[in-house]
Every structure is written in structure tokens, then in C-alpha cells.
Amino acid sequence: MIEMQGVSFGYLEGEPLLSDMTLSLQPGSFHFLTGPSGAGKTTFLRLCYADLLPAGGQMVAFDQDVRALSRDGIAALRRRVGVVHQDPQFLDHLPVAENIALPLTVSGEAVDMKELRELLIWVQMTQQARSLPPELSGANVSAPRWPAR
């Protein structure tokens, strides 16, 4: 869980980019972050995985104050927080499915092949699962359709 209470951050002293943010992100939850360029989306994400530390307020990640985390503690936090940026970088020598599973593989976690297949179905990429990233084209990859609720 990531909790922010009155968190603020700014790159220039006296000019906060983000201010008085209060929220709670539950473990296993899935979120989309959208907004105009310069709104602070990347800064917010960097706060979530402790690449940046808040200038004010309190931020707790998995019951630990992020300001008190050691280097190893930050690494452990990053193994628990998944972020897919707008322009993800894939390893060209690994098939798409292996690139997707790579964070779990590197952290020693078991890869649930059923969940991986379901994800590929959801984003309409089952045909590209064994393709290498350089073989893909943005024109050939369609946007995901949201599951009916």
C-alpha cells in the first residue's frame, strides 16, 4: 500500500509542482494516470517508487516511511511497485511475453502463465507473444478494449 498525506514536491524552491496530495493506493490495485504535459504525472510516479522524496507531508509505502528507507529498502519497494511508462523500453532479444514477465523473473517470483495469457488477450497481443520487440509496429498494435463490467 502507498499512502500520501499532504505530500508536496517541487523542482524549484518555493514553487511546488505537486502540493497537498492525499491518497491511498491499495496493494494489487491497477490505476491509469493521465493529464496534460507538465502536470506532474512522471513526478508523481517517481514519488510512488521513491525515485524522488516528498518535500513536505508524509509518504508511507508498505508500512514504512519512504524517507527512512535504506538503499536496499528502496530496491525492495521498487520490486513491489510496477510502473509502465508511456514509452516503455523492451529488451530486443526477448519475445514480448518474456519482456512482460521479466520483472517477476528478475525478482525470483513465479510467472503465472494463465495470467500472462489473459493479459495478452486483454491487450490483443496474443499473436505477438513470441515476436521480438523490433518486429512490432505501433500501427499493428491496437489499443486495449476495456473488459465489460
* Overall number of domains: 2
**Which strand order spans the largest sheet, edge to edge or round the barrel?**
2-1-3-4
| Count of β-strands | 4
H and E order: EEHEEHHH
Beta-strand residue percentage: 15-25%
CATH fold-level label of the largest domain: Rossmann fold
Name the average pLDDT.
Answer: 84
What is the topological layout?
Blueprint lengths: L1 E8 L8 E8 L15 H8 L7 E6 L2 E2 L5 H10 L15 H11 L6 H10 L27
Antiparallel strand pairs: 1-2, 1-3, 3-4
Defining traits:
26% helix, 149 residues, Rossmann fold, 4 helices, alpha+beta, 2 domains
Describe this structure in words.
The longest helix is centred in the C-terminal third of the chain and has 11 residues, at 96-106. The protein is built from four helices and four strands; from the N terminus they run ββαββααα. A four-stranded antiparallel β-sheet has the order 2-1-3-4, covered by helices on one side. The two termini are 25 Å apart. It is globular. The protein has helices spanning 41-48, 71-80, 96-106, 113-122; strands spanning 2-9, 18-25, 56-61, 64-65. The protein has two domains: 2-80, 3-Layer(aba) Sandwich (Rossmann fold), CATH 3.40.50.300; 89-149, no CATH class.
Question: Could you give a short description of this structure?
Answer:
By secondary structure, the protein is of the alpha+beta class. It has helices at 41-48, 71-80, 96-106, 113-122; strands spanning 2-9, 18-25, 56-61, 64-65.
